[in-house]
Amino acid sequence: MKKVTDINWNAWDPKEKATLMFIQQNNKLLLIEKKRGFGAGYYNAPGGRLEKGETWQECAIRETQEELCITPLDPQHAGTLMFHFIDGHSIHGEVFTATKFEGTPTETDEALPIWFHVDELPYHNMWADDPLWYPKMIAGEKFTGHFTFDGKTMLDYELL
Quick one: signal sequence residues (predicted)? Predict the structure, then answer.
């Protein structure tokens, strides 16, 4: 299935559920340079897999604590991302934002924290879908995205 219209997203059952947590302050985003695991070598937000019994928001906070040693305060839901890979992998992601946090962003074995101005995001070294929905998130607009990928190559998308 290469086209998003080939997929019945209402019946779609993703193999993984995960979150992303964006810290926004003074027209800057706190991103990570992912050091290992899925998306290694790319810039992204802290995040990861939903664990049994936890809410989406709890997952976003926990993953940010693990990857950056900070605790986001009052995270807000920003959007939903659904990724279908032609190799059969699939991810349902929920995106959160926060403007405040406790602690100091600290490098871990998984992530190097870096602040980027919203007008200077390193899209050339990010997932191909990011330039499509980041502007909506930064502007505070809710969004839902459906994407098909072949490895790291985006094949098709629909952004609502």
Answer: none
